């Protein structure tokens, strides 16, 4: 049997009807949906490549839009955490530094993924017909599938712990679910 007491206590700290929380959850779910739909549309129609004059220019433009959307998502996530109560027992040095360490590992995965893939590899260049010479198998891909997704999830988890935020933990679960669905869709 599963003890749901911890989950009940967690939900006691989170107002899921709060506008900021809803906006954060929607922005989290929207991002991977947006980039996957646009990338598949581009792959089928080549419309963005035609509008921008080349696949590379179109890919860079989509990448810039994705980066802006990620900044919006992170801002909404942070504002939702700040508007909700902290978990007093977690508002301590141990939790803060644990969150900092988890965020650091996540950042390592995200940055090393970007360096291994490059801009067009990171931002869906394959849908634009910009293919890499071979599959990337170096770190962090040598130890983890989809390290950018799980690194990003770790950053949000760490950020939530650093702020002792039950709302942040719940939103991190939304991030993990959204990325899990994105992986299934992309696969």
Descriptive report:
- With 187 residues, the chain is mainly alpha-helical.
- It has one domain.
- 73% of the residues lie in helices and 0% in strands.
- Helix 6 runs antiparallel to helix 7.
- The chain is globular and about 55 Å long.
- The mean pLDDT is 93.
Summarize the structure.
The protein is mostly helical and 187 residues long. The chain has helices at 5-12, 19-45, 47-52, 55-82, 93-122, 147-162, 166-186. The protein has one domain (4-186).
Using only C-alpha atoms, the radius of gyration works out to 18 Å
Globally, the shape reads: globular
Major pleated sheet: none
Estimated share of beta-strand residues: under 5%
Outline the low-pLDDT stretches. Answer: none
Q: Give me the strand/helix succession.
A: HHHHHHH
Protein structure class: mainly alpha
Q: What is the topology?
A:
Layout: H1 5-12, H2 19-45, H3 47-52, H4 55-82, H5 93-122, H6 147-162, H7 166-186
Helix pairs in contact: 2-4, 2-7, 4-7, 5-6, 6-7
Enzyme class: transferase
Transmembrane segments: 20-37, 95-124, 165-185
Pathway: Lipid metabolism; Phospholipid metabolism; phosphatidylcholine biosynthesis
Jot down its keywords.
187 residues, mainly alpha, 7 helices, EC 2.1.1.71
